[in-house]
Write a structure and sequence with these properties.
The complex is a heterodimer of chains A (408) and B (427). Chain A is mainly β. Chain A is built from two helices and 23 strands. Chain B has helices at 3-18, 45-48, 57-61, 64-72, 155-160, 172-176, 190-198, 209-223, 249-259, 322-345, 353-363, 391-409, and strands at 39-43, 95-101, 107-112, 117-120, 123-125, 134-136, 183-187, 229-233, 267-271, 281-285, 291-292, 319-320, 349-351, 365-367, 370-372, 425-426. The chains are: A mainly beta (408), B alpha/beta (427). At the A-B interface, strand 2, strand 10 and strand 23 of A face helix 1, strand 2, helix 9, helix 12 and strand 16 of B.
Amino acid sequence: MKKVLLSLFFAFVPFLIFAQGFQVNLEGQKQIGMGHTGTALLLDGSSVFFNPGAVVNLSENYLQAGVSPLLFKSGFVPTGSNMQYNTADKVATPLSAYAVWGPKAARWKLGLGVYTPFGGLTDWGNNWPGKYTLTSLDLKTIFIQPTVSIKLADFISIGAGFVYNHGTVNLKRAIPLADANNPQGEAELKGSGSGIGFNAGVFIDTKTGLTIGITHRSKVNTKLTDGDAYFRVPASLQASFPSPNTFKAELPLAATTSVGFGYSFAKKWLVAIDGNYVHFDTYKALSFDYANNTNVLQDTYSPRNYKNAVSLRAGVQYKACDQLMLRAGGGYASTPVRDGYVTPEVPDANRGFYTAGLSYLVNKHFDIDLSFEYEHLASRTQTNIETQLAGTFKSNVYIPGVALVYHW
Amino acid sequence: MKLNNYKNILLSGLLVLAACKPKVDVEPASNGGVDFSAYIAVGDSQTAGYADGGLYRTGQINSFPNIIAEQLKAVGGGNFSQPLFSEAQASGTGYRKIDKFNADGTPSIVDVPATAVRSANPVLFTKYTGENNNYGIPGIKVIHTSIAGYGNLNPYFERVLTSSYPAANTTYLDYITAKPYTFFTSWLGNNDALGYATAGGVSETLTDKSVFAAAYSAVIEKLTAGGKKGTIATVPDVSAIPFFNTVTIPVLLAAVQRAAPSVTTLYVNARKTSDAGTATYEARAATTADLITLTFPTSKLGVNGYGVSPLNPIENQYVLDANEVTLVKDYVNAYNQTITSLAASKGLALFDAYAFLNTVKQKGLLINGVNLSAIYISGGLFSLDGVHLTPKGYAIIANEFIKATNAKYGSNVPQADINKYNSVIFP
């Protein structure tokens, strides 16, 4: 008579979100130093990412690699409380590496880029009030992009690259089922998948010091077809949570359209502005399809209803001497996450960012680039529509970076 | 320098940055001018932390007053002592737990034996002699609060008195006001209706409305003497609890029909009218408006026509029939009018538990990623007895008391994290 109806126990809704928070804009140390502008610049091999159409205009061949250890620090205070909960200190390591080659004075160049444009590393731990929505997330994507760039005329060139993405995700959340030894259960979802897309651009050199770039990086719909799902719950309920289980999901990594201008108004000075339009509105919902369903563990459909986002960036470079370039920049990015949809994976909000950088030219073939970026996310007080997680999020991001660049 | 050293420098630089945590600006905790330094909790089993059919140490530790007291520390709250059972006698008066699930998905619920019984006849529990701020006494009604010798009738009360059975003659009112205090919560009156209801309208009576009003006023008069501030709560609708909503007529009928498909009607012994006067009962066909108690032994059904024949209806004590439901609701509404008007006239904060639990029953409750409801076991709010709450349920009640207090007094007592507290424990 006392049938246990666990199906109402909790809405088991997995929860992957790709916000600007997951769009990791760290694809070249020189560009980071200039506020992550670069659509209309010819700084080094990272043009493979920033504008494939510009690659052919690089005066040399490049082989380079950089890393930008990233510390995303979030704090959360529940509504009605004065207790702040913080994410653990974890360092993510976005990478970028580029190779560019072409015969001198040819009308074409080839390029290869390997970079990590989306990712997230968040660890709230097992004892925060939102633990039933998320305890930790580790998301990595790596894009591989072979590229060709062609000069159509002296003033205009185009380029395009094919993008292959390999993504991995590991996501944990607590389950509100207690037994004598464990105050809560745990769900862990992990898997990997792949997707394809492209990156194309046009580069215009007006020969007056003004350069113009337009690019479009396509959506990369990454499909996880055979993810593993593990559920640890009280033994008497394990049958309702088949474990190990598998799941299917799609992670839509948003398209970005960019327009940029570069202007060298004096021999030692270069300024740039970029505008990006990120097409997040294709991200309507996230669905998870479990291979093995029970009355408790159902397939899920979570509305996301993202809106498109913009970012505006500006930067300046000053050539202090033959061996030293100094850079500074900054920008503003709007959030694609509407009110009511903010989640702890990345508690996204409108953000401002400030950057600085330098290059030390060791010799005529070898540069060391350093960069530093600080991002400040506006504090955001939210009650999530799906989980009713209510509170105020605030986040800061600190990103130093270093790259080694060889060119000939 | 090796590459590793560069890496170490970079990482240590990052860790320096790690020291700068984002600081979320929130309204600071404040007492709103209320002195929370000496808090006492007045009430019955819900206040005591009773759960799973018994009073035991874990339930006491997770009592809502203890959770409130922890939060009051941010606004000048002092030490809050409870009459805890010792570690050695942690099972206290005994309680129930889920042992396993049967093949049909029903839980097998077993008794955890009592360890704190010092006399079996009359039943007396191990004395508690230390400091006490939690005056929750399981079973107490408002009308008991001024009875000298009540301690001789209620072993939970006898347990905390300095005098012992058969000379436990202190009244509850004198007991709770003996020690100085600055702030109180009071959640009394539940048993004045619940006692009658859980007995199926037999062997217990509803406290008369005017008697309730007089007794409740006397308690509040005494508690507020000298202008003391406090937060009081209304009496929940008894039909909002799983004790009356788990074993239902449709569920029973379906079970009977599995064995005897021809049966279309169940019979209950029901009150003829909802008038408050002397009750007369008659057998009649059961409807969904008749509430069956969680304690109904379903094995009785069908034996000698039990429950399926008007000659052998489901007995009174297992049924809160439609007329009894109407009667109890009428009384509870009257009690709550008394409580509400007293809160207003005495300047006390009011937590409307009646409205809150009815809303939970109708809509459920989604808080910080957890779905809760008034459904037995899986709902997460109510413990295995179907009447009292789980630790998570008590934490939610604590937050409702805190919200009511803040709303009335302009204080900002921070709320507790309900997700620190568990629901029903599963094997």
